[in-house]
Amino acid sequence: MKYEEFLKTKIELAVESGFDIDPGEIAPILKPHQRDAVCWAVRGGCRALFESFGLGKTIQELEWCRQITRHEGGQALIVLPLGVKQEFERDARDLLKIKVKYVRTMEEVKKSDESILLTNYERVRDGDIDPAYFAATSLDEASVLRSFGSKTYQTFLDKFKKVKYKLVATATPSPNKYKELIHYAGYLGIMDTGQALTRFFQRDSTKANNLTLYPAQEDEFWLWVSSWALFATRPSDLDSSYSDEGYDLPPLDVRFHRLHIENTEITDRDGQPLLYRDAAVSLQDAATIKRLSISERVKKAKEIIDSDPGAHFILWHDLEAERYEIKKQIPQTVEIYGSQDYEIREKRVIDFSDGKCRLFATKKELSGSGCNFQRYCHRAIFVGIDYEFNDFIQAVHRIYRFLQTDKVIIDIIYTDEEDKIKDVLLDKWKKHDYMVGKMIEIVKKYGLSETGKSERLKRKMGVKTVKVEGKLYTAVNDDCVEETKRMESNSVGLIHTSIPFSNHYEYTPNYNDFGHNEDTERFFDQMDFLTPELLRILKPGRVAAIHVKDRVLFGNATGTGMPTIEPFHALCIEHYMKHGFQYFGMITVVTDVVRENNQTYRLGWSEQCKDGSKMGVGCPEYILLFRKLPTDKSNAYADDPIVKSKEDYTRAQWQIDAHGFWRSSGDRLMSKNELVKMPISNIQKVYRKYSRESVYSYEEHVELAKKLDENNKLPASFMVVAPGSWTDEVWDDINRMRTLNTEQSRRRLQMHVCPLQLDIVERIINRYSNPGDLVLDPFAGLFTVPMSAIKLGRKGYGIELNEDYFRDGVGYCRRAEIKKDIPSLFDFIEDEKEINEA
To answer: E strand or H helix at 775, and its extent?
Structure first.
């Protein structure tokens, strides 16, 4: 396969695994937008319907199942929230004129003659129903899975893996938890969860699971989502010729009621009263405030109900104690609850839906999904407030939906300590509207055809080559595979680079990006095009020093339930050896385990205390050392040996360099984006000194060893000043280095999980190259390696796909060439004493 052909295989929209049907085969009762949605979903095979409340997802799911069982045979299963089956039975009977049956066990399934069967999520979760038996399955209001927890998400993914046709239907995929959309993609078999996270999201280095879309990837992300999920708020979203008559929502009046609760005392775990009360501080404080305010909140609800005696009300509550208080203060209320007999619950839901009772109290987890109450009810009271936006918006739309004829009034009761919770809720609502708007924009632009979307993504392939050359450097903006093909054989004295860590991060919105691969196997497939070129252009006998790090694999993606480690460094060794490189050693560079835990939550102290058996250790970085065999193998000296004088390269320095464990100060280059955003005061206060007790200095380490040697205290038989360890990978007693890093909230700082440190680069160049040698970095980033090569009397050669990185790197190389100071991370760390004085 040629390289261009390989890149084209990366263009990945959702694969169509279904079949085409003539629109005339669709039941005539379906409206045009419903008909087209069913045809699209059948053709796709595994798809999602994210349609607004009232657009008819129920009849679309039924018709999708009917069409598939007609063409493929077998039976179809629709999985429902509790209390929703009556809606499906009604539409099947009255609109499609077909029979469906509710089943509880596989025995009932196998005895039934109906082609479409209904069951509840709990039946599947508990193993009573086996989805693998069915030809097609549909998850109705699939967002309710979230309330079961991530374990159930993973369980469902496994249980439904063998089902050929899968449909997901919900009106409110959470815009505030992108992982939910990614989970749906994983469930449908569109893309692995880990791959989607890597492709589209930057991660917060201080907090796990805090995901933000890369700004440059936003359009591509929503384009990808629209290839397998259909968003629609009204019929005209799918086709401008479709009429929106009957699909106009009534006015919505949201009323917040802020209560101040006097004479309540909140205590900590030790029973000590807290002076400051804030429900946003912790879940425990929120629960305490909610519990203490129940009576007053229900009292306010009663006041609202009494003010409109002709209206029907639904009272949404979260706690059993709230339900008891509602019955106490408003005894005429009809209630349902989890332990109640299912038939009783179902009858009461139907009675309220049909207007047979005026006041109905329920929890969002029981009636917040799938129920239609708009025919007789236009008022809802939320007796409490919490952070769960999806549950909240679902509950609102039980009455705020198409076919509602009255203005909908939503009353939300909360206390003054819950102001921040209210603000968060409103912010999530705003983000939800933005997400829906973004998707509708894409649907209107591209319609339901995949052709336009695929062509749009193809334009992100390739880059126009830009080459900037100085006397001591060459900088190339291009795919490193393409550039190395053009380089002369046996021309490079040293290759030193930090390769992408498989698909851990993407560096550009470009399909040439090595980080833009499905998995590690595919990453190495792309590396197979580069590595032979690196071997060809490296001088015989010279070194390729490859910086890598093992990868954390999370249990919810692998199904193990615990984080495991992919031995990426070992896979790299195998890869380079396969292409003819000789592996001859590895340097270990330890990292900050506390910071790593903040990123992954896999090494937590609390978890260690609960069960230390699943706790590993931090992941160090490695410099893998490979060599191209020299022409003369009798003594294995390089064709052009790397020669050092003992006066310049002392025994002291040799001992430290030859050790397999290196420490680093952590200093690195700053991007232009960082410099621009630095406060002027910081830029003016360049680095003066930093604490030698806290930060390791390679130069000071060498100087100490030299002084010991001068005093005959540096033995030749053993190492007296071995580098001290500050991590569990290498056991030793020494203070840990203080982490020195800027706040990493912008995309460019997130791109590489471990940017190359200046002192490590300088040591590699000094040890494995001669003055005047050409030093190549095929993944140059900010051009740390070429810039360092210039400073050390070599020539630098950097190749970088990211245009912004390339421009910054050229600037660094130019300044190095004219011997100006190069600003680095430490230049912007203020003296601790000055900070204290300020």
So the answer is: strand 774-777
- Residue 104 in 3-state DSSP? coil
For residue 257, what pLDDT is reported?
96
Span 63-94, pLDDT tens digits: 999 999 999 999 999 999 876 888 899 899 99
Query: For 669-798, where are the alpha helices, taking DSSP H only?
Result: 672-677, 680-684, 698-710, 747-750, 758-768, 784-791
How does pLDDT run across 146-189, given as a tens digit for each residue? 554 555 666 777 889 899 999 999 876 654 467 778 888 888 98
CA dist 59 and 827 (Å) reads 64
Q: Return the number of other C-beta atoms located less than 10 Å from residue 35's C-beta.
A: 19
- Per the model's pLDDT, the better-predicted residue between 382 and 748 turns out to be 382
Q: Taking 80 as the threshold, does the pLDDT of residue 430 lie above it?
A: yes
pLDDT tens for residues 616-673?
777 888 999 999 999 999 989 999 999 989 888 888 888 888 887 776 766 666 654 5
- Do the beta carbons of residue 186 and residue 153 sit within 8 Å? no
- Paired with 359 in beta bridges are 313
pLDDT in tens, 373-404: 999 999 999 999 988 887 898 899 899 988 88
3-state secondary structure of 185: helix
Q: What stretches of 649-700 adopt beta strand conformation (E)?
A: 661-662
**For position 745, what pLDDT does the model report?**
30
Give exposure, 264-292, as e/b (b: 16+ Cβ within 10 Å).
eebeeeeeeeeeebbbbeeeebbebbbeb
CA 749 to chain centre: 16
Closest CA to 256 of 297, 213, 201: 297
Count, in order, helices (H) and strands (E) of the chain.
34, 26
Quick one: pLDDT at residue 732? 37
CA dist 496 and 26 (Å) reads 62
Angle (CA) 706 709 710, round 5°: 90
User: Is the C-alpha dihedral spanning 794, 800, 803, 808 positive or negative?
Assistant: negative
Nearest in space to 7 (alpha carbons), one of 445, 508, 447: 508
Residue 685 pLDDT: 39
Q: Which residue ranges form the domains of the chain, and what is each CATH number?
A: 45-190+228-237 (3.40.50.300), 252-446 (3.40.50.300), 467-837 (3.40.50.150)
Distance separating alpha carbons of residues 113 and 126, to the nearest angstrom: 24
Q: Is residue 299 pLDDT above 80, yes or no? A: yes
Contact status, residue 216 vs residue 72, Cβ threshold 8 Å: no
What three-state secondary structure class fits 800?
A: strand
In angstroms, the CA 260 to CA 275 distance is 16
Contact call for residues 144 and 121 (beta carbons, < 8 A): yes
Beta bridge partners of 498: 547
Q: Where does 143-228 show beta strands of DSSP type E?
A: 165-169, 201-203, 211-213
Average pLDDT over residues 332-355: 90
CB-based contact 213:221 (threshold 8 Å): yes
Q: Is 773 helix (H, G, I), strand (E, B) or coil?
A: coil
Quote the longest CA-to-CA distance of the chain: 101
Burial class (CB in 10 A: 0-12, 13-18, 19+), 837: exposed
Determine the pLDDT at residue 175: 47
Determine the Cα–Cα distance for residues 12 and 524; give it in Å rounded to an integer: 18
CA gap 811, 802 in Å, rounded:
15
DSSP 8-class letter at 267: B
